[in-house]
Each structure stands twice: as C-alpha cells, then as structure tokens.
From TrEMBL:
Belongs to the UPF0303 family. SUPFAM superfamilies: GlcG-like (SSF143744). This is UPF0303 protein TU94_12455. Signal peptide: none annotated. InterPro entries: PduO/GlcC-like, PduO/GlcC-like_sf, YBR137W-like. It comes from Streptomyces cyaneogriseus subsp. noncyanogenus. Gene3D superfamilies: Haem-degrading domain. NCBIfam families: PRK02487.1-5.
Length: 165
C-alpha cells in the first residue's frame, strides 16, 4: 500500500501580497547574493531537492547553482520566471495568481510569449527599501508552489538573521 500525500495548498492572494510587502532588503550586495544563494543550496541539499538556483541584480547574474537532479531545462524555466519578475515587479507566482483571480491564465491573457515568460512559482523580487525591485532570486525543479515556498523560506531566514539587510 502506498500513501499518497495531498498536494501542498497554494498560498492565497493575501498571503502572497503580504510576503511581497514584508520581504524587503535595506540593501543588497554581491555578498548578500552569495549568502542567500548558499542558504538556498543548504536548504535544497537538506531536502535532496533537484533544483537550480539563480540570483540576478540589475541584469547581472550574481549567483547560480545546479544541484544533482536538476537539468538544463531548469535554467530555461529560471530565465522565463525571472523575466516575469523583471517585467511586473512581483513574484512570478503572484503574477500568475492575479491572472487566475480574474478567471483567466497568464498564458491566455498576458499577450506575452510563453517561451519567454512563465508566471509559475519560484521567482521572487529582490526589493530594496526606497529603491524598488533591483533583481530576482529564482529556483526551478520542484512543483511551482514548492519552488515559491522554498524561495520565501530562504528570504525569511536570511532577513531574520540579518536585520540590517
């Protein structure tokens, strides 16, 4: 007999909006990208998650890691999800949720090429107080709700541990 687990419940719109307001940096440096990326690697290794991780700021890749089990396809998903964050200034999962809340999908209604943009969970804006969105932290390799939750967990831990950031 196998035990099936129910799919992880998707975060609601209020939770997604609250995450976006709460997970803000005072500054974001190259060293911060390294530390945040390394934290994501540790969390993924603990869970044996087959993911790729990417952190971009101002058009520059500051961190990238591909863990065992990830594939080149994960890098393509990362790029597509990151472009959604860069275009909309919001988490990729939140952007998709906003379209679903209107009774449609991102793919049907955004008028953007789905080979270039993906409003799936896993990319979160790097927002700096008084500046706005300066980049994105993105993971790919798990179901989209899990990708989103992993990034949010890492951001929460990072910002709790380093309140001056």
């Amino acid at each position: 007999m196998t035990t099936e687990t129910a799919p992880e419940p998707a975060p609601g719109m209020e939770e997604l909006e609250a995450q976006q307001r709460r997970l803000v940096f005072r500054r974001f440096t190259h060293d911060d990208a390294w530390e945040l990326g390394s934290l994501l690697v540790r969390l993924a290794r603990e869970r044996q998650a087959p993911i790729a991780i990417d952190i971009h700021r101002a058009g520059q890749q500051l961190f990238h890691a591909a863990l065992p089990g990830s594939t080149p396809d994960n890098d393509a998903w990362i790029a597509r999800k990151r472009r959604v964050v860069e275009r909309y200034g919001s988490a990729s999962y939140l952007v998709g949720a906003r379209f679903r809340a209107k009774g449609t999908t991102f793919e049907e209604s955004s008028r953007l090429d789905p080979d270039v943009y993906a409003a799936h969970g896993g990319s979160f804006p790097i927002t700096v107080e008084g500046v706005g969105v300066v980049g994105a932290v993105t993971v790919s390799g798990l179901p989209q709700v899990q990708d989103h939750r992993l990034v949010v967990e890492a951001l929460e831990r990072f910002l709790e541990r380093s309140p001056d950031r």
